[in-house]
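Look over both lines:
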Amino acid sequence: MVEFAQSGIAAPGIQQVDWEDRVDPDRLRTYRLQRARQALEASELGALLVFESSNIRYLTSTHIGTWAFNKAERWALLTRAGTPWIWDFGSAAKKHRLHASWIDPSQSRGGNVGLQGAIAPDAGLPAHAAQEIAAVLRDEGVADLPVGVDIVEVSVLRELEAAGLDIRDGQQVMLDAREIKNVDEILLLSQAASMVDGVYQDISEALKPGVRENDIVALATRRLIEMGSEQVEAINSIAGERCSPHPHVFSDRLVRPGDQAYFDIIHAYNGYRTCYYRTFAVGRATQAHHDAYAKAREWIDAAIQAVKPGVGTDEIARLWPEAPEFGFDSEMEAFGLQFGHGLGLGLHERPVISRLNSLENPVEIKEGMVFALETYCPADDGRSAARIEEEIVVTADGAELLTLFPAEELYITNPY
């Protein structure tokens, strides 16, 4: 068991100062662009065209808030020969020209492909976007090479092809680039986790009979925003009979004495995300609660101890129970419960670890990866369950924890 968890990874604070080494934004931007270039050069592609929010940010270090999250209404382009281009929503393009000195002002443009069809393709916006993109590819000498795209609307895809472009899968190239984090990314992930450490302290004090699941969501959201969170993407808040099977959504259910309850806090600090489960018992715990928690802890500890560079994700997945052992008919239905997933600007990066995919298609664990490991165990009472998640950095010596709120044993809040 991981006892009295500590970490050698700093969480240095959220402001830049002149008296301490902290996140260096210029170094971060340089590293990400270098990684993307290396991945692009190692591929068959001549350019990367990205519409997904985290990929846009990785290439351009631009961000216009959660409104734009995965609407595919802004896009970025990087060719083998050039520097990043960004087509952004309305006035955001002018804002970048004024305040994002790392972007060539002539390469920050307004763009619009129709607001997911609200402006019909017949208006010509997808065709105009495709023509602009093709012109840049010609100017930078890569129009004859395949273009890697991550996600795209059908109307835009058809116009890119009509412009003579050979469209391929670019998401794998972007994931290749993003799988190894530099010191700045690790510090940002650590800072994001430290904010959740504090929120769990608040939850542990507030979790008592009469509080609703959605009250905890409100509390956590407010505290994260107060602490500087950029986006609170989701908070799972699950209690009592709703724990098994896992519903993945909160409700207005009142917490009752003796409930087992678990939470997942997903937020972003400067773009870098958390996925961080903790389980509590409210006031008192039954033996079934303790037993489920001990089993979930056993499974996650085994996985953490196995992590080191060179290990395959299949070796970790085999340490976890098969789906029927914890109440599911198939690994497809059990997916996401005994689970590992990379963390960064995206919630699900490489590696993804589970019995569904890792046994036949393992990925090598590498130094500099950051990922979450999570386990789930239903209790023998047929209604309760335990859920634990730890975020780790892969070092030369093994796993270093980012998630430090106590989880060695089942935490009983406001005990009677």
In short: The radius of gyration is 23 Å.
